[in-house]
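Worked example

This section walks through a single chain of length 474. The input is the sequence exactly as stored; nothing has been trimmed or padded.
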Amino acid sequence: MNQTESKKPTFGISLLIVAFLFIALVIQVVMYGSPDIHLTLVFASAVATLALMLTGTKWKTIEDGILHGCGIATIPMLILMFIGMLIPAWIAAGTIPTLIYIGLKIISPTFFLLTAALVCSMASIATGSSYTTGATFGVAFMGISLGLGIPAPITAGAVISGAIIGDKLSPLSDSTNLAAGVSEANLFEHIKSMFYTTIPAFIISIVLYTIIGFRYSADNIDTATVDLILDGLASNFNMSPLYMFISLLPMVAVVTMAVKKINALAAMVIAAIFGMFLAMLFQGRGLYEMMGFMNYGFSIDTGIFEVNKLLNRGGIQGMMWTVSLGYLGLSYGGILEKSGVLETLLNKMASITNTPRKLIITHVFSAIAVNMLSASQYVAIMIPGRMYLPAYKKLGIKTSVASRTCEDSGTVTSPLVPWGLCGVYFAGVLGVATLDYLPYTFLALFVPVIAILYAITGKFIFMEDTGKVQEDDI
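Given that input, the structure is written out below as tokens.
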């Protein structure tokens, strides 16, 4: 072996490394209820590094892994920081206050969760971006839910369930194209295949949101609080029909740029600056004041606690807790990927993929595990996707089933990992801890279950030779 080449870790060492992380997280999150897992990830990375280097891994490999993970994190974390700029700019411009004002006026509390899921699903399919949907419509729905007295974790679950539809079904989505490419599937065959798991899960989700919504009706909503919020917004922002229309232009601009595939970083910066100028032109804000808002978060004292709670948020600095978590999670994942830990673990699981049932179930659980260990849905799509693709071909299963499984396990579960890119993003943007919204993110919970049920029953497992459905194992 070359002196600069690292020795591949054994299965035992690989298992020890990931076991340490899971045990540490269980102790911290479950036993102590602390969401501050930054140092836990640092300790887990240190233990992984020590174990790997003692068994033959070179420091250069560890360093490459850290840089690789940080490279994956950089663009999403920059987007998150720029969204930190965007949110206070849009609040100062009246964009978010207008959406909240309109929402409190017209949305029925009973159908609020259903509305949130449906609107976010349509927005994400149109743009192909769950991130854009969460940062625009999602933020507005979180504000409306506070006024209607609907718990924030439930609202966040409905928003995310709608938002990740676009990550699965839109041809504009990066994860949709990635899964199809990794599995060598036709893009539209891939999307068609995903309908079999995604649509039933979404129908179940919106039924559940509708049922939960019946707990909240006009009769048990504190109308005095709603009126107080409406008056507070109207007193501090221009709520004339003309300006309400003007204030929504930044949101129109973001959606338009997303549809036209303008770079997300550029789109967030343009939208933030657009909002800043509107605030200066129509709300009387100064340039230096706006720079302070965009750096440290919007700040206002309306004399009304509920309105202050709605509006005092955002800022680049307000996102740094989330950004640091993203970098630490991806650094740990990069170490495991580049050192061969993930490959070693997956190779061990690859020995139990000799039937369609075993293959798909193994693929689902592998991708979820990789999602948790690498903190990246892209890694969770790519590594298991490429590793199990030969098994799909050997069994005569269409590659669109392989690509579908990549998304059924890798894409949809990414918002549920507290230290993962997607989980970090939504927690930061929506202001709700991942573990709090997790039980209500029904789409993400049901899609993998449906995929496993199809594998067990042999339903909708399409075969290359006949084009028909495989009804049982071969």
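What to look for: Residues 127 and 259 are 5 Å apart (CA to CA).
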